[in-house]
Amino acid sequence: MSETPTPSRGVLLRAKNGDVIGFDETGLRLRLADEVIADIASRLPQLGSAQEVDPAVLGDIDAWDVKVIANEYVFSARLAGEQGVRKFRRPIQSDGMPDTIANPSGALFAMFGLGGARRTTGQAHDLRFPWHVVTAGDDLGATGNAGSDTNLETSALYCLPEQTRDSLIADEIVARRQEAYRALPVIFSRSESDNSGCIADLAVGIGMSNLTQSVKNFVSAARRLGLPPKVLGVGLEFTLEDVLSSEAEWQSGIFKIMDAVCDLFSDQGLRKPLFVSVFDAGTQNISDHTTIRAQWALSWNSGSHDFVFSAPSYMFPLDTYGRPTLDACLQMAEMDASAVEALNEDQTWSCPVLLLAEREDDPTIIRCRGQAETKFVLDSDDPLNSGDACGFQFENDDAGAKIIAVQVAADDPNDVLITCDKPPQGTNLTLLYAIGHTPSNDGMPANRGALRDRWSLKSRTGVRLHRWALPAALPVH
Fold first, then answer.
1. Full set of structural domains in the chain with CATH
2. DSSP 476
C-alpha cells in the first residue's frame, strides 16, 4: 500500500487557455465555455429553474407567484382588461422601453400596416386586451415616426398608448379567440406611413424603410422570447393621398410595394404575407378619383400575392373632415379581422365583385355579371340609402336612360339585371356602381349601394355589418 498522501486538489484536464476539469475537497470543478453557459441559461426556464421574488418588486398591482426567468419577472396577476387572471412578464432591465405584456405561448404574432395618414393615424380607443396587443419598445407607439424620422433598432416590447386600425384588428382577433375559448395570442402591431404624394414614392420612401426596421424589431423580439415569429397580415392602403398617379401607375405601384414587402419578409425568414385593405370609395365630397377606379382591378387580379379587400368604405360613417368616425374604425377593424382570420385558417373570404356589363337581347336591359362567396342580395331595406337604382348609374349615356328596376337574375345568382326606360347609348358607355354619386350631407360617403351577399356580423357598435359589393366602373358591351 502506497504511503503517498492523496492530494486534496488538482487538475485532471487542462487546455491551452486554462484548466477545464479540476478537483478539490468538495468534488469536481468544471470551467465551461461562455457558449455552454449561455446554452444552459437558455434552457433553465424549460427545466423549471426559477427564482421566487417578492411581488412588491412589481409595484402596487394584484400580482403573485413572481419568478425570475431569463432576466424577466414572470408572474400571475389580475390586471385591467378583459383577459382575466393570466400570466404576464416584465423585463428586469432593458435598453429599450420595458413594459408588462401577457406571457405569450406558441408564437409571437404581428399585424403590420403601411399606407397613407388615414390608414395609419392613431385613434382614441381603449383596447379590451391591452397586454396582448403590443409594439416595439422604441417609445413611438402604434404609429411609428409617421415618416418624420427613422425607427430605432430594439427587441423590447411596449404597450400601446394609442390605437391604429392594425392594433384594433389585433384586439378584435384576441377578443374572438377568447370568446371561442382558444389560446390568446400576443400580437405585435405597428403602422408606418410618410408624406408621399404618389404610390411610387411610398414604395421607396421612409415609411417603407421604417416598416423594414419594424419587421426586424418584431423578429428580434420573438427571438428574445424564444418564440417563432408569425405575421397575421399587412394592412396596405394608399388611395386618395395619391394626387399624381394614373390608374395604371397606381396599379403598378401597389404591386411594387407588395413585391418589396414579400422580399423583406423572405429576408427575415417570414412567410409570404396576407395583404388586407378596405376598398376606398371616397368621402362625402369626393366620389370619383383615379385611385377609386384603379382599385377595382386589384379586387379580381392580385397576381401572385395574397390580397383581400375586406369591405368597401362606403358602408362606414365619416366625420365632418371625411375621416372614419371612431365607431367606423371599430367596424373596419371587425371586417378586416374577419378576412384575416378566415384566410389564415385556409377559409375563403371576398366581397362581391362586379366583372362585366353587357346588353341582353332586350336593349333596355343590361346584365351585370359578378362573383361572390354566396348568392347576391339586393337589400330591400336599403340601409345605406342608395335609392331605387341600388347604387347603379350610367356614365357617357347620350340617351339619358333612367334605371327603373334592378334585380338579381333568376338564371344566375351572381348576376344583376338592370332595366332602363330606354336603351342607354353613347361612346364609352360605362355602368358605374358606387362611383360618381352626388355629394352627401348625411354623415356617409357620397358613394353607396344596396348589393351584398348573405354574410353578416353583429358589430360591437350595435349595427349589423355585411359584405357589400365593391365599387366598379364597367364598360357596357
1. 10-43 (no CATH), 51-91 (no CATH), 101-344 (3.40.50.1110), 354-475 (no CATH)
2. B
